[in-house]
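S1.2 Input.
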Amino acid sequence: MFMLSTSKQRPPSIWKGKSLWLPRRAVTGLLAALRKARRQQQLVSKRLLREDTEQGGQDGAEVLPGPLSEDEVLELLRGVQRGSEDRKGSLSRLRRALQNKETQQTFVRLDGSIRTLVGLFTSSLADVQMEAAPALHELSHSSDPAVAEACLPVTSYLLTYLSGHSVEFTELCLYTLGNLVVESEAARKQLLPQGIIPVLASCIQSPHEAVLEGLGYVLSQLLQAKEAPTEIIPLVLDSVLPQHMLRLVCSGLKAGTGAAVEFAWCLHYIVCSHTGSVTLLSLGALPALASLLLDLASEMPQDPPEGLELLVCPVLRCLGNLLAEEPGSEGVARDQRLLVALFLILQAFLQQHPFIVQESLWLLNNLTADDPFFCSALLSLDLLPALLQLLPCSQMACVLVLTVLCKAAAKGPAYCQQLHQGGTLPLLLPTLALPDPEAVGQGLELLHLLFLHWPEAVPDFVRQGGHQALEQLQSSLELQERAQALLDMVGQPQGASTFSPCMATLPTSSWDTPPPFPPPAL
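S1.3 Output.
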């Protein structure tokens, strides 16, 4: 009747987004939107690099130029074609004008406009190239598919210039490429035969942090494409990219954190494709990422810097999903410090970034799935109170906590005794009143295991109003059969009417902000 949850693979379409650490120049309008995207959804966002964003108003809000008429755009185009000393100034004004969406649409409709801009981009004059590149970059950032599609003739040149002499120019080319491949299948189909994967594999050995971060952005867009599992990831796996990505992720605390974030998400997308896990496992991804997790926890300040969560999140996911590919945690040393590291990370991010709780619990779920070692360590390290305090964080957290507890309880009487003596029942009972059937079902499953292996828990359960809590579930078609099975195990208590259900007196607010738990020592 009762079955342990066996789902271990972290879905790729939940809680995804982009990195916080910015290139040397400001990435305009990026932070809030990308943090939200990285946590909540599949990423299809673009990036915009600007050096000369004008500020206005007391709040320092960005002031964008107004739309230009067709005649005004034509006059700017004539200015950049004259070849006079003012050409650079005209190109700078054109770049500024293209920050306006309506002007972008007007520009690409004009015959020969893109051809002119591409000609300037491929000029032998470096100062002209450096003015034309941001103009193309502005167009690549457009949300209008027609504008982005108009930029396709420049893709082969962008790839060529990735081996250029200027870090700033290479960075612009990378972010322009990344923007073009986000939503345009045509751009991706054009770039793959042009050799984008070998070019990126060459660039990943660059010593420049800005180049590596931009490269990670391009690669992360490619790896999220619908055709990635069949057309892109095999090319990536056949290149030197995976080992370099793993190296950059694991050196992120000492080298470039921004690049480490990008490549950590790239690894996550590869794992979720179900086509690259074997390659990553053969490269030692499990022990390498486990070691990184220990480093992250050991160096975690009490108040983590904003953005560190965007590295922690994909590292946790990669570990959890790789464990799902390699059951029994054989690929990870049976090191109790992994559990301590998880709880240190949980404590650090609990208040400001509670989504990390779910990510950490998913990894804990997979660590405890097939091997009693981590179930035993969870109890022997006295981490049970900290785990129980995570029950109220969210419905997903509640389900995952209960799932982990069920795995421990399924190990037999000694485990169930420790769960009972560790105060599981008082915090378990309120879960039976939750509106989420999955959480309630896992709570019933845990009760079944406790009663089966440790009958001494039954009187305590009844004294705390458990009998009445089970009776209230009789009205649920989905849960009534399991509730009745537990009622049969409990039996009718003497004087049951004198006990009030504990969930009837539990304040709703107590589920909103659980108290912090004391940190264990790493």
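S1.4 Remarks. The mean pLDDT is 82.
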